[in-house]
Amino acid sequence: MVKRVRVRYKGTVQGVGFRPHIYRLAKAHQLAGWVNNDPGGVTVEVEGEPEQIEKFLKASVEQAPILSRIKSVESREIEPKGEKDFVIRESERGEVVNTQVSPDSATCPDCLRELFDPKDRRYRYPFINCTNCGPRYTIIEQIPYDRPYTTMKIFKMCPECEREYHDPMDRRFHAQPNACPVCGPRLVLLDRQGREIPGDAIQNAIKLLKEGKIIAVKSLGGYQLACDALNEQAVKTLRQRKIREDKPFALMAPDLGAIEKYAFVSPAEKEVLLSPERPIVLLKKRSHPSLAPSVAPNQKNWGFMLPYTPLHHLLLAESQMILVMTSGNLSDEPIAYQDEEAMARLKNIADYFLTHNRPIYIRCDDSVVRVFEGKLYPIRRARGYVPRPLELHFSIPNSVLAVGAQLKNTFALTKAGQVILSHHIGDLDNFETLRAFEEGIEHLKKIFEIEPELVVYDLHPDYLSTHYALSLDLPKLAVQHHYAHTASVMAEHNLEAPVIGVSFDGTGYGTDRAIWGGEFLIADYFGFERKAHLEYIPMPGGEKAIKEPWRMALAWLERIFGADFWELPLEFLKKINRENAELLLSATQKGINAPLTSSMGRLFDAMSALINLRLEANYEGQPAIELEMIADEKEPGFYPFEFYSQDGVLIIDPKEVIKRAVEELELGEERAKISARFHNGVCRMVIQVCEELRLSSGLNQVALSGGVFQNFWLLSKIKSWLEERGFEVFIHHQVPTNDGGISLGQAVIGLRRLKDVLSGSNEG
Ligand SMILES: [Zn+2]
Ligand SMILES: [Zn+2]
Question: Is the pTM for the entire model greater than 0.70?
Answer without folding.
Answer: yes
